[in-house]
Amino acid sequence: MIFIALVVIYFIALISLGVYAHKKTKKTPEDYFLANRSFGPIILLFTMAATNFSAFTFLGFAGNAYKTGLGQYGIMGFGTAIMAIMFYVIGKKVWKLGKEKGYITPPELIGDRFNSYGLRLLFMTVMVVFTIPYLATQAIGAGIIIHSMSGFGVQIGAIVTMIVIMLYVLYGGMRGSGWTDVIQGIIMILAMALAVVIIAINLGGFEAANTAAYNSNPDLFIRPGGNEYFLPQIWFSFMLLWIFADPMFPQIFSRFYTAKDEKSLKTSMILYPVVVSFLFLFPVLIGVWAHTPQAAEVLNISQPDQVLPEMVKNFAGPVYAFVMIGALAALMSTADSQLLSLSTMLSRDLPFKKFKISEIVIGKLLIVALSIFAIIYVISGYDSSKGIMGTLVSTTFSGLAVLCPTTIAALYWKRATKHGCIASIIIGEVSVFLFQYEILPTYGFLSAIWGVLIAIVVLVIVSCLIKTE
Question: What's the burial of 460, exposed, middle or buried (CB within 10 Å: 0-12/13-18/19+)?
Answer without folding.
Answer: middle
